[in-house]
Amino acid sequence: MRVWLALLIGLLATPAFAQLHPTARTVITQAVEDVIRPGFAGFATETERLAAAQAELCAGPSADALAVVRGQFGAVVQAWSGIEVYRFGPLMTDNRTERILFWPDRKGIALRQVQAILATEDETATDPATLYGKSVAVQGLGALEFVLFGTGAETLGTAEGDFRCSYGSAIAALLSSTAAEMSSEWADPAGISARLIRPDESDLDYRDNAEVLQELVGVMAHGLEMIRDQRILPFLGRGGAEPKPKSALFWRSNQTMPSILANFAALRALLVNSDIWEYAPTEQFWIGEQAMAEFDSVAIYGSGVTGTVEEAMADPAQVDQVANIVISSQVIGKLVGEDLPAALGLSVGFSSLDGD
Amino acid sequence: MWQRRAFLKAAGAGFVASLLPRRAEALERAELLFASSIQKTAGGYAAALVSEAGTLIASVDLPERGHDLTFSPVTGQAVVFARQPGTFAVVFDPAGAVAPQTITSIEGRHFFGHGAFSPDGRLLYATENDFENARGVIGIYDVAGGFRRIGEFDTFGTGPHEMLLMPDGETFVIANGGIETHPDYGRAELNLETMDPSVAFIDRRTGDLIGQLRLAAGLHKLSIRHMAFDRQGRVWFGCQFRGDPGDRPQLVGYATREGEIRLIELPEGTLGDLRNYVGSVAASSDGAVIGVSSPEGNTILALDASTGGVIEALSMRNGCGIAGDAAGLLASSGDGELGGFAGSAAERLSVPVLFDNHLRRVP
């Protein structure tokens, strides 16, 4: 009896024992409180700064003020890239995902519509309230990128760019208010956070911890697929096709690679900071460890891609680095999309990956 | 296209020879056989034949994930189609006597995962994507000509998914899911705001549109995707909802060639269990029971085709495939489960493969 007790105490006293296996509740709480909520708060902060900088630019147009806005646009894209993978809850109501970023836009709808607004100086696009009622393609990051970096953007530094600047202000204000709404929804202790942290049999989507963990693992699996299929392959080209730099998201602002790397970093943060990989049996820790190593490789490949997408795609060495990122995304996709759910006893792996 | 080359190699070496004796034995014993695309537990994809008792009879390797299968009513040849946006289909002989053959989609088209033979077995039809024009087409293949593609018909919609030949043998019914995709963006859905799903009835010989049915305007984000006939010849369909995830619209209904289309009213709790996603629809052999599955909700329903009432709700994790067996319905799951319900005597058991979305009884 005493021996057993000593053994038991020994086990409990081993710090590794407690640390190695967080509870499902801990994993979910850490995902919400340490990863998702700060991400949405950051997007709210950055868009608020963007709206302020844009207003300042319009009040006193100058090359310097324009440079500040352009720099802040990059910060907003970074923040967005960290949260856009959370396609459930606040991002999924009221077409917010599409309002913030209308993409992919294969037919160039946004460009046509934004150019039409600029050409006709459509005043209803300068008021956030009426802009909200327009096509989702003219009120988000893609539209603002064209305003700030597209043909004619240099007029923003002068009084000549008055209309363009007001339109940009309306977009920035709308982004800021949507970001603030989402952040407060995530911060609401009785809202989506509660549904995830304390799932309930009566909930439509989250009846138990397994369904919440499945949602989180799904974020990683679907996120990797999105990065690959919607963000990299359209400009890298599939199956040896010619690269198409202008099919890249954010090529005008030179945010293509930074946004892609921020997407990866966000998924890595979810994996690591939630401790979800340690919720697996100890002998399955290799899954999380390999995924982390592969995420690190992505960052290294990414650092080898410099300059604009157009320049990078004209350089075989940089094309290789981007191709390596694609391969890494497939490796991580298998690890977190197949191996990890299997290790966690979830069923994300196969037919529940939707779309057919 | 490296994928195609890789595939041609794979298909040539596709038969699992060691399983041949078991296949012969199973055929001799006249057991009910079922076919499904699978993912192998060791990785890799295949189309597999399995008995109702859970014996794996044979498999044909596939280079990527397969989807549905169809059978020639004359020769019994099977065709498995790639899951969208795949570019291959593989023709194989369930009895294993003839080597498998690969069909590749033509430039500018890819498969959607479903198809059907003509009643005389001379033509094979497949739903395909004319992706540059976001237009659904039915590819037409000449069986005797080595499955040469000899033409195409319009599906009168975007994103066609399942197609069936009606019991009259002359009319196609097509589920135009309404969702635009383009292989440049993988499986990303490009037109959720302007989706226009429909059920189209098309003349098999001329390709003429006989009739096209749509749900109420407020339901344009309800993608109509899978179908089966009941014994009255009505077309039951199951939908996937792409609107606000907080909404729970009805997902199951039926349409007729005479122009009727309606959604049935599933009870709130049952509807909730479907998680806005129906993965397959199949009928019992006598057409009296309609099976509807949701792998998202781990639920498979058996519905009375005459009343729309729920006969049974089977709980099966990742359950999606359904096929009629001798007395009821057989279900399969992405976790490798197989089990009968709604009158079937088949035991619930585990098979060491992961079944894809569709299960078909081998005729």
The total strand number of chain B stands at 28
Could you say how many structural domains of chain A there are in total? Answer: 2
- Identify the CATH architecture of chain B: 7 Propeller
Level-2 CATH architecture of the largest domain in chain A: Up-down Bundle
General form of chain A: globular
Q: Main β-sheet of chain A, in a few words? A: none
Residue fraction in strands of chain B: over 45%
Classified by CATH, the class of chain B is Mainly Beta
- What global shape of chain B is seen? globular
What name is given to the CATH topology of the largest domain in chain A? A middle domain of Talin 1
Strand pairing plus helix content of chain B: what structural class? mainly beta
Could you name the ranges of chain B where pLDDT drops below 50 across 5 or more consecutive residues?
Answer: 1-18
What does this molecule look like?
The complex is a heterodimer of chains A (356) and B (363). Chain A has 356 residues and is an all-alpha fold. Chain A has two domains: 20-197, M75 peptidase, HXXE motif (A middle domain of Talin 1, Up-down Bundle); 209-343. Chain A has helices at residues 2-13, 15-20, 24-59, 63-83, 96-100, 109-120, 128-132, 141-149, 162-187, 192-197, 209-236, 256-273, 285-303, 309-313, 316-343. The radius of gyration of chain A is 23 Å and the shape is globular. The longest helix of chain B has 11 residues, at 2-12. Chain B has three helices and 28 strands. Helices cover 7% and strands 46% of the residues of chain B. Mean pLDDT of chain B is 92; it is low at 1-18. Chain B has a single domain (2-361), classed as YVTN repeat-like/Quinoprotein amine dehydrogenase (Methylamine Dehydrogenase, Chain H). Chain B has helices at 2-12, 20-28, 268-273; strands spanning 33-40, 45-51, 56-62, 66-71, 78-82, 88-92, 101-104, 109-117, 123-130, 135-142, 148-154, 160-165, 171-176, 198-203, 209-213, 222-229, 235-241, 252-255, 261-263, 280-283, 289-294, 299-304, 310-315, 319-324, 329-333, 337-341, 349-350, 353-361. The two termini of chain B are 35 Å apart. A four-stranded antiparallel sheet of chain B has the order 3-2-1-28. In chain B, strands 4-5-6-7 form a four-stranded antiparallel sheet, with helices on one face. A four-stranded antiparallel sheet of chain B has the order 8-9-10-11, with no helix packed on it. With 363 residues, chain B is mainly beta. Classes of the chains: A mainly alpha (356), B mainly beta (363). At the A-B interface, helix 11 of A face strand 28 of B.
